[in-house]
């Protein structure tokens, strides 16, 4: 190991600004299976939520920040990893059944991709696998 290069261990968590904690929580629970792990309070008010995925997805922070959420709508910050194409196809079918509009799974620059899935604030989500 090169001592001049810092040691890292993947993505610890993702944090998204949202306009409404309840609607974002509901969407990430119903569409992707996330579960509430922790409420973050700012005095008496809930300022954010920490969500946990039961099958290995990254921890997800939803932070009440309407101005930033609106400004970031339409931008894809990251890609959620999937184990294989079959998992992406199953997710695409689930999202379609729940009324979500997306272009389906297709070849990406590396592996397969399910792009252009939008959460309640218009954050563009991408799901990808390498094989």
UniProtKB/TrEMBL annotation:
InterPro entries: Glyas_Bleomycin-R_OHBP_Dase, Glyas_Fos-R_dOase_dom, VOC_core. Residues 10-130 form the VOC domain. Pfam families: Glyoxalase (PF00903). This is VOC family protein. It comes from Paeniglutamicibacter terrestris.
């Amino acid at each position: 190991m090169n001592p001049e290069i810092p040691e890292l261990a993947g993505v610890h968590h993702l944090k998204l600004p949202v306009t409404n904690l309840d609607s974002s929580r509901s969407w990430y629970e119903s569409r992707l299976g996330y579960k509430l792990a922790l409420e973050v309070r700012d005095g008496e008010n809930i300022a954010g939520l920490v969500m946990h995925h039961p099958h290995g997805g990254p921890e997800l922070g939803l932070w009440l920040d309407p101005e930033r959420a609106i400004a970031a709508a339409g931008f894809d910050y990251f890609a959620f990893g999937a184990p294989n194409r079959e998992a992406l196809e199953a997710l695409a079918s689930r999202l379609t059944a729940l009324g979500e509009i997306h272009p389906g799974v297709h070849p990406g620059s590396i592996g397969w991709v399910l792009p252009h899935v939008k959460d309640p604030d218009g954050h563009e989500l991408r799901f990808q696998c390498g094989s």
